[in-house]
Design a protein that fits this description.
Protein name: 2,3-dihydroxybenzoate-AMP ligase
Number of helices: 17
CATH architecture of one domain: 3-Layer(aba) Sandwich
Bound molecules: 5'-O-[(R)-(benzoyloxy)(hydroxy)phosphoryl]adenosine
GO molecular function: ligase activity
Largest sheet: 9 strands, mixed
Pfam family, one: AMP-binding
Strand order of the largest sheet: 2-1-10-9-11-12-13-14-15
InterPro entries: AMP-bd_C, AMP-bd_C_sf, AMP-dep_synth/lig_dom, ATP-dep_AMP-bd_enzyme
Strand content: 15-25%
Helix content: 25-40%
Organism: Lentzea flava
């Protein structure tokens, strides 16, 4: 495995192979196999373009050869920051064939995050769109290339290098295929190595659970770089079944409803915030959405009252999904009773997923009691890339990943997310590290100390509140947002609200007591 990654122990790898979970196939070889089986069926729809499996396969070969001619080799990392376009898919498969490793970057990322990803991954290139959402991504990539010496290439999506296909050695299926990003408990995102074997398994099992077949049509609404749309079952899962993936450039209701009608979409995945938007829009839309069979909702808490509106509004099944880029996925199933679908986040997708729920001392708690979720299994990472110190804390000595989520299990074996122990704000599914934002806030000359906490929000679930202890005249919200933007932070990380206090409540250990702070703020007694 790539140096800096933590492999599964040999005996686990053997067990996953014997059980048929890991099949020793690379994602690049899988596309060849799908092209042989589904040939001229449509793999991808992007705007007016309809791309067959055969064409996607040939395109990936040409891109792989083109990248190789530019000097990209097996093991090289490239930061890929693209919206939901066909080029992302073709490029990833080209890189899988080459053994080069895409590092998935969200389109919302700005200089601060992209620079960090480039440095952390040791990338030698960046891929960006020419134009997207009124932002100059090419300028951003060039700026980063100017300050990160290792970056030798800036590729633009509309002019990716292509060449006549060349024979390439097959990468090791047990090795990394690409990097996903962690939701970030530490100041900046960490890299999650996902292997060919583990991701092929994840997409296959989730496609099976949802009974995807050649007639399945998946609508990609969330940013393609998220684990959820990419492979839960998402795009790769619908390919596994010989179906079609349709790209949406925006999660706005009307354009999505139009695509659902036009392409006869059968399955999509969204976050609760988008669910709200769509539910509001349905009564005003006359689009025919009768093709929809499943709407998957996850990434943040879905309230049972909202959950109950989904089936009546869309005439299709709701599936609650709990997941993480690190691995573990839990789904509700077609045969679950209604109350389970409305009030729980389902159960693990693999029989080999191991789950522990533990108290603060690390002891298992009884069924029904909330505790921290620990997990290990055939598609859950064993370590972040190049992060030995963090790994020592984030994993138990026997390889369980500490999720930072507070969950409880019902007698029926279904999981309910109760909260979290990690210092993260979940803003409509976007994860924001409090530590990261705090560090930037204290760069303001008039901010002595800062603590970032979540405040409840009807639509987003949570919003970000920056609580500051000023030094002199306290800055106002627009000034703080401007500062953070100038420091190269993605927009979704900017605080929604600021509160000024004289001191922070402390825990017995002398750390800021964020629970109590958040409660005070939510109670409205914090001064402005
Ligand atoms: C998904 O992945 P990430 O990596 O952006 O975030 C993971 C975290 C979880 O640890 C948990 O805190 C939260 O997001 N989360 C949920 C949830 N699903 C995820 N919290 C409450 N209810 C849920 N249903 O968010 C992700 C990855 C794959 C599939 C779905 C979601």
């Amino acid at each position: 495995m790539l140096q800096g990654c933590v492999p599964w122990p040999d005996q686990d790898a053997a067990r996953f192979t014997d059980a048929g979970y890991w099949r020793g196939e690379t994602l690049g070889a899988l596309l060849r196999d799908w092209a042989a089986r589904h040939g001229d069926r449509t793999a991808l729809v992007c705007g007016d373009r309809r791309i067959s499996y055969q064409r996607l396969d040939a395109w990936a070969d040409r891109l792989a050869a083109g990248l190789r001619a530019q000097g990209i080799r097996s093991g090289d990392r490239i930061v890929v920051q693209l919206p939901n376009v066909a080029e992302f898919v073709a490029l990833c498969f080209a890189m899988f064939r080459l053994g080069a490793l895409p590092v998935f970057a969200l389109p919302a990322y700005r200089a601060n995050e992209i620079r960090h990803l480039c440095e952390l991954s040791g990338a030698i290139g960046i891929v960006v769109p020419r134009e997207h959402a009124d932002y100059d991504y090419v300028a951003l990539a060039k700026e980063i290339a100017g300050v990160v010496p290792a970056i030798e290439h800036v590729f633009v999506a509309d002019s990716l290098p292509e060449a006549d296909p060349v024979a390439l050695p097959e990468p090791d299926p047990r090795d990394v295929a690409f990097f996903l990003l962690s939701g970030g408990t530490t100041a900046l995102p960490k890299l999650i190595p996902r292997t060919h074997d583990d991701y092929a398994y994840q997409t296959r099992i989730t496609a099976e659970i949802n009974e995807l077949g050649p007639d399945s049509v998946y609508l990609t609404v969330l940013p393609i770089e998220f684990n959820f749309p990419w492979g839960c079952p998402g795009i790769i899962g619908v390919f596994q079944a010989g179906g079609t993936a349709v790209m949406a450039l925006t999660p706005e209701p009307e354009p999505c409803f139009e695509l659902i009608e036009r392409e006869r979409v059968t399955i999509t995945s969204v976050v609760p915030t988008i669910t709200h938007l769509w539910l509001e829009a349905v009564p005003h839309s006359n689009r025919d959405m009768s093709s929809l069979e499943i709407i998957q909702i996850g990434s943040a808490k879905l309230h049972p009252e909202v959950a109950a509106r989904v089936q009546p509004a869309f005439g299709c099944r709701l599936q609650q999904v709990f997941g993480m880029a690190e691995g573990l996925l839990t789904f509700t199933r077609a045969d679950d009773p209604e109350d389970v679908v409305l009030t729980t986040q389902g159960r693990p997708v693999s029989p080999a997923d191991e789950i522990r729920v533990v108290d603060e001392s690390g002891n298992d708690v009884p069924v029904g009691v909330a505790g921290e979720l620990l997990t290990r299994g055939p598609y859950t990472l064993r370590g972040y890339y190049n992060a030995p110190e963090h790994n020592a804390k984030a994993f138990t000595s026997d390889g369980f990943y500490r999720s930072g989520d507070l969950v409880r299990f019902t007698e029926s074996g279904h999981m309910v997310v109760e909260g979290r122990v990690k210092d993260v704000i979940n803003r409509g599914g976007d994860k924001i590290s409090a530590t990261e934002v705090e560090a930037h806030l204290t760069a303001h000359p008039n901010v002595a100390q800062a603590a970032v906490v979540a405040v409840p929000d009807l639509v987003l679930g949570e919003k970000t509140c920056a609580v500051i202890i000023p030094d002199g005249a306290a800055p106002k919200l627009p000034q703080l947002r401007k500062l953070l933007r100038e420091r190269g932070l993605a927009d979704y990380k900017l605080p929604d609200r600021v509160e000024v206090v004289e001191s922070f409540p402390l825990t017995g250990l002398g750390k800021v007591d964020k629970k109590s702070l958040a409660a005070t703020i939510a109670g409205g007694s914090g001064g402005r």
